[in-house]
Amino acid sequence: MVTIHDLTPVSEFEWEIPADARKGMRVGVRLFATRRLLEAVLKDNAVQQAVNAASLPGLAGPVVVMPDMHQGYGFPIGGVAATALPDGVISPGGIGYDINCGVRLMASAVPLEAAQPYLERLVTALDQHCPSGVGTAGSLRLSDADLEKVCRLGAGWAQQRGWATEMDLRRCEDGGCLPEADPASVSPRARERGRTQLGTLGAGNHFIEVGVVEDVYDLEAAQAMGLEPGCLTLMIHCGSRGFGHQICTDAVQSLQGAVRRYGISIPDRELVCAPLDSPEGRAYLGAMRSAANYAFANRQILAHQARLAFEAALAGVVRNFHLHLVYDITHNIAKLETHTLNGRAQRVCVHRKGATRAFGPGSPDLPPEYAHTGQPVLVPGSMGTGSWVLAGTAESMERSYASSCHGAGRVFSRSQAKREIRGEALLRALEKQGIQVRAGSMGGLAEEAPQAYKDVDEVVRTVCGAGITRKVARLRPVAVVKG
DNA sequence: ATGTCC
C-alpha cells in the first residue's frame, strides 16, 4: 500500500516516487497534485496502479499521473506512460475501455441573454437530435463497407457525407483520423455492435452541455478560439460506444496469451500487454485506431446533429446561431509521437488514459490558427460545476509527455454515488441553479453527481500551477443532456 | 465506459 510517506514533494503541485521505491519498478512516478487532492486519491488504488504501471517493459521515462487521477482497470485514469522500441509494449489497460473517449467544444456568437427565453426549447431539440442512453442505436445502419470506411477515415467519413467542413477536420486532434487503422483486426462481434451506434452519445459521464463563456484569462488565445465572453458554447463528451468497448474486451482477452508467449512479467493481470512490434501488439494497435476513428466520426456526427438542433430551436428568433468548432481532443488513446527524453529525440508510444494531449506553441501538429496559443485542452467539470479551456505549454513537452488533465476525476465510485445520492434531488438542485437538464435515468444522474467528483477548479489550479497548461477561459453550464 | 453476465 502506498502512503503519503512514499511520496517526495517536488513543489506545491508535484510529487515523485523514485524508481527504487518498490520492487519491480523500472522507472519512477511523477504525480501532479496538491496535498489535498493526493490525500483524497490515496484512499483508492490509483497511486498503487501508477507504481504497477512503472514496471511495464520498455518505458522511456517516468509514469506521469494527473491531479484528476482515480482508480481504473489496471492502470490509473489520469495516467500517462511512454514506451519505446525495441522492448516497449502496448497495454489496453493504459488506454481504457472507451477508446478515444474525448471532448469537442463548439462556440457561437449568441449572447446568453438573447437565447435565454429559448433555452428549454434548445435543450429539448438537442435531446431529440442526439440519441443517448446505454445500448441506444442511432439512425444509421452501417454496411460492412461503410464501417470499414469509418475505421479508416474517422471524421473524414462524416465529411464525405456532408456532415463536416474542412475547418471541422482541421480543428480535430490528428485531423480527426489516426493513420494505419486496421479494420481487419476488429472482431465480428465489435463490428456488429458498432453498426448501429454511430451518431449516439451513450451514457455514464457522457453528455452534451450548453455553456456560456464566463471568465477569460487569456484574451488573445480566447479570440483565436472564437470564445466570446457571455456567448453560448456547446461541449460534447463521448467516445467509441460499444464498438471500442468490445475491441478493448477482445484485446484484454487475447493479450493474456501474448503475456505468456513473450514471458512478460506484470504485477497485475489487468496490465496485460504485448510488444509494440509483435503480431498481437500490431493487431491491437490496428483495432484500437479503428475505434479511435469511429469515435472521431461519432463526435463529428453528433456535432452536425447539434447544429441542426440549434437551427431548429433558434432560427428566426436569434441571429448568428452557427456553432464553429474550437477543437476536438481525445483523452483515452495510445499514439506514436516524438519526444525529447534525456536530451535525445525518441519515437515513443504515449498511452494517455484520462489525460489530454497538450502540445505547446509552435508544434507542427497544430492548425495554423493555434500555432501561437498552443493546443486547446478541454476540461469538462462535474455536472453543473463549470468547464475549462486551457492551452498546452512548452513545459508540458518537457514534464508530462505533452499531456495535461482531462476532467474533475471521481472521488467515489458509481455504486457509492448511487447509494448516497438521489437523482431526483440532484435534478431539482441543478434546476434551482438555472441549469436545464434532460436525463435518461435518475440512477444515471446520481452516479454523476458533483459530490462524487473532485473540485475541477483545484485540478486546473494544479496543472496550471505546475505549468503543464495555462488557463484560457472558464465556461458556466446552462443546460445539459445526459443518457 | 459497457447490449453493467453469453
From TrEMBL:
Catalytic residues (UniProt): 406 (gmp-histidine intermediate)
Keywords, comma-separated and alphabetical: GTP-binding, Ligase, Manganese, Metal-binding, Nucleotide-binding, RNA repair
GO biological process: RNA processing; RNA repair
EC number from the UniProt entry: 6.5.1.-
Cofactor note: Binds 2 manganese ions per subunit.
Uppermost EC category: ligase
Cofactors named for this entry: Mn(2+)
Amino acids binding GMP: 205-209, 331-332, 380-383, 387, 406-409, 482
Catalyses which reaction(s): a 3'-end 3'-phospho-ribonucleotide-RNA + a 5'-end dephospho-ribonucleoside-RNA + GTP = a ribonucleotidyl-ribonucleotide-RNA + GMP + diphosphate; a 3'-end 2',3'-cyclophospho-ribonucleotide-RNA + a 5'-end dephospho-ribonucleoside-RNA + GTP + H2O = a ribonucleotidyl-ribonucleotide-RNA + GMP + diphosphate + H(+)
One GO MF term: GTP binding
Binding-site residues for Mn(2+) 1, renumbered to this chain: 98, 206
Amino acids binding Mn(2+) 2: 237, 331
Protein biosynthesis in keyword set: no
Keyword GTP-binding: yes
Family to which this protein belongs: Belongs to the RtcB family.
Assembly notes: Monomer.
Descriptive protein name: tRNA-splicing ligase RtcB
